[in-house]
Amino acid sequence: MRTLPYALLAALALTALAAPARAAALPADVTASQCIAGGGMIIISAVGDGSPWTKRCMGGIHDGQTVV
Q1: Which pLDDT tens digit goes with each residue over 3-22?
Q2: HSE-up of residue 12 (Cα within 13 Å, Cβ side)
Q3: Would the pTM count as exceeding 0.70?
């Protein structure tokens, strides 16, 4: 009965390792609609005084992508 948890862990590890390869195939920039539809949320931030705003998609399938 111990092989089932190890098999489950192995399957989860393979899924986690495949995620970066899938993320590399995504476009560099996504729209706000694509970010939300992919299960993410838009984080708007500014660094320093008077600098431009940056918008990033956090979470979902477009995690870390710039939102245009």
Answers
A1: 557 666 666 665 655 555 44
A2: 6
A3: no
